[in-house]
Design goal:
The chain is mainly alpha-helical and about 150 residues long. The protein is built from seven helices and no strands. The chain is flat, with a radius of gyration of 19 Å.
Length: about 150
């Protein structure tokens, strides 16, 4: 489902999740309130994943739009809505004391970190999923064309 929306989205979501695991493992030992540390972080990670999905959805809808001006207006409006939603998540977390706001922010930043590391993660996943460490069919056909 995610791949139909955007080919890079599953890798982006995986990167956010891996980032969450790394931050959880690295920081929970130094925190005095481990529960609030963890809950804030994972609320942030889930928020980052929701933002990534929403961005991919809006891009897909905008590409399919007929009128470029309406698409541009829609992108701006949905972007504002997305950031208002993040402010609401922070407010609810703070009001009900659901988690640490700093780790929530660190979790939301997982979207940025994952976006920067997605090309590297893609290369790693390609190498891991190749059978026997050989090249993919696409690479083999390109190599054959070059040799001819």
């Amino acid at each position: 489902m995610f791949r139909r929306l955007n080919k890079a989205l599953p890798e982006l979501l995986l990167g956010i999740f891996i980032y969450g695991i790394v931050i959880q493992a690295a920081g929970v030992w130094f925190s005095e309130d481990k529960l609030r540390y963890s809950s804030g972080l994972w609320i942030g990670i889930l928020t980052a994943m929701a933002m990534a999905y929403h961005i991919a959805l809006i891009i897909a809808e905008s590409v399919d739009a007929v009128d470029p001006q309406k698409a541009r207006t829609r992108i701006i409006a949905k972007g504002i809505l997305r950031y208002v939603s993040v402010v609401i998540v922070f407010t609810v977390t703070m009001y009900f004391d659901l988690g640490n706001l700093i780790t929530l922010f660190i979790g939301v930043m997982g979207l940025k970190i994952s976006a920067y590391l997605q090309p590297t993660l893609h290369k790693v996943l390609i190498k891991v999923t190749e059978k026997g460490g050989g090249s993919s069919d696409e690479t083999n056909s390109m190599e054959r064309e070059v040799k001819m």
